[in-house]
Amino acid sequence: MKIGLISDIHSNLAAFKAVLSDMPKVDGIICIGDLVGYGAEPNEVVKLARSKEVRAVMGNHDYAAVTKDVRGMNDRAATAALWTADVLSQENLDYLASLPHHLEFNVRGQRIYAVHGSPRDPLSEYVFPDFSNRDLAEVVREVEADVIVLGHTHIPMNRMVLGKAIINPGGVGQPRDRDPRASYAVLDLSREVKILFRRVEYDVEAAAEKIKAAGLPEELATRLFFGW
Ligand code: ZN
């Protein structure tokens, strides 16, 4: 049993398509939030995710697009969120509004828990890979799961604390670990829990051009070339 893990697609259709075509055969895909925000193709990304029957949780940018509540966002993110809110179709807004704040399910006796930020702050808290074991333990202590999947930082992570695997597949549409390639992971629950991390080249130029053509802040295009 294999599950594709994707997160932080951020309206980057080229990166999303590249990840889907690179991904080995899986039994299902879950998205750990932020289908939209920053990038220029929110409707196309939501449509593709729905057509692939991706199970998604809500991210802070999905929330901002639905509510136009951009408190806590920097200017670039807020500008893009409000632009996204305006261009999304009503059907796609309704879909994003329907997303749960977290997902919990069982696969072959393994309990999986997915949330964009952290279990104690589903939309906003960043859990970085350089957290101490002690800090990570605080984050996941109350969660009864074997595998906890997080997003939001756009940085891949694979840690084990209190017997719980804590995984972040990194960012599909806006990686932030200085590697511009799209990032995703595959969770293999065949016997023991195994995790495969993948990086995929995609047409960054095309994504960047669309951001500029849409009149979105230019830094949102530039950063894609550098992975920050
Ligand atoms: Zn994000």
Q: Would you mind describing this structure in some detail?
A:
- The structure is a single chain.
- The N and C termini lie far apart (33 Å).
- The protein has eight helices and ten strands.
- It is globular.
- The chain is 33% helix and 22% strand.
- Helix 1 (13-22) links the parallel strand 1 and strand 2.
- The mean pLDDT is 97.
- It has a domain at 2-103 and 169-225: 4-Layer Sandwich (Purple Acid Phosphatase, chain A, domain 2).
- The strands form two sheets. Strands 3-2-1-9-10 form a five-stranded mixed sheet.
- The chain is an alpha/beta fold.
- The protein has helices spanning 13-22, 42-51, 60-67, 75-87, 90-97, 133-140, 204-213, 219-226; strands at 2-6, 28-31, 55-56, 102-107, 110-115, 147-150, 157-161, 164-168, 182-188, 194-200.
- The structure holds zinc ion.
- Zinc ion binds next to loops.
List keywords for this structure.
globular; 228 residues; 5-stranded mixed β-sheet; Purple Acid Phosphatase, chain A, domain 2; 33% helix; 22% strand
Set out the fold topology:
Blueprint: E1 2-6, H1 13-22, E2 28-31, H2 42-51, E3 55-56, H3 60-67, H4 75-87, H5 90-97, E4 102-107, E5 110-115, H6 133-140, E6 147-150, E7 157-161, E8 164-168, E9 182-188, E10 194-200, H7 204-213, H8 219-226
Parallel strand pairs: 1-2, 2-3, 5-6, 6-8
Antiparallel strand pairs: 1-9, 4-5, 7-8, 9-10
Helix pairs in contact: 3-4, 3-5, 7-8
Structural class: alpha/beta
Straight-line N-to-C gap: 33 Å
Proportion of residues in β-strands: 15-25%
Shape: globular
Low-confidence stretches: none
Number of helices: 8
**CATH superfamily name of the domain at 2-103 and 169-225?**
Metallo-dependent phosphatases
Oligomeric state of this protein: single chain
Number of strands: 10
* Mean pLDDT across every amino acid position: 97
CATH architecture of the domain at 2-103 and 169-225: 4-Layer Sandwich
From N to C, what is the helix and strand string?
Answer: EHEHEHHHEEHEEEEEHH
CATH class of the domain at 2-103 and 169-225: Alpha Beta
**What is the C-alpha radius of gyration, as a whole number of Å?**
16 Å
Q: Kindly report the CATH topology of the domain at 2-103 and 169-225.
A: Purple Acid Phosphatase, chain A, domain 2
Helical content class: 25-40%
- What compounds sit in this structure? zinc ion
